[in-house]
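Internal tracking record. Fields below are filled automatically when a chain is submitted to the structure queue. Please do not edit lines marked as system-generated. If the sequence contains nonstandard residues, flag them in the REMARKS field before resubmitting.
Queue: standard
Priority: normal
Entity type: single polypeptide chain
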Amino acid sequence: MAKKDEQMTAFLSEAGIPDQVTRQALAVDAVLQGWRRRFSKRELGRMALQELGLDLDLPKLDVLIAAWAPANEFGDPQEETMVSTIAARLNIDPSRASRLVSELITQGLVQRGVSQQDARRTIVEVTPQGAAVVEAVRTIKFLILGDFLKGWPAEEVETFLPLLERFSTWSEEAYDKGTTSYAPTIKALREKLDVPAQ
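SYSTEM-GENERATED OUTPUT FOLLOWS
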């Protein structure tokens, strides 16, 4: 363990986190930070758009895919897709989703429609051209991911997937734990920094 992490490790130990778990958490964090930096560039998505010759940026692609609603990401949605549905799927502001949907309408990739459940509601429908774009981009993505995973033994993938899914929920719990379970510990850290309480 790096010398600069020793003080934190001691502090965490006093808070009930064993040294071995801290070492493991540091290793996981290093992998995640490297992954985050690579993913934030969205190189695979950019490459797919470029290679397919599409005049589309990544935020619009995200909205188009959310409107198309792949079952592996969003389950098998039975409800109609509205701008608010897209905003919720992507965890973005509804006004941003609305603007991006309008731009996709201009490009002919989605269209507005009338709800069959409530004629007062406007729904968003992916056009055949939009569906073709989503299918092409996803095919490139899974061509590359599939090529990577085919080198793994099936047992490793079967072990990895539920662990990855389980691990992915930690960030959903992090805020609540930080404000409840570890509030006294975080207060002690704040006091060390001499930052006034909010």
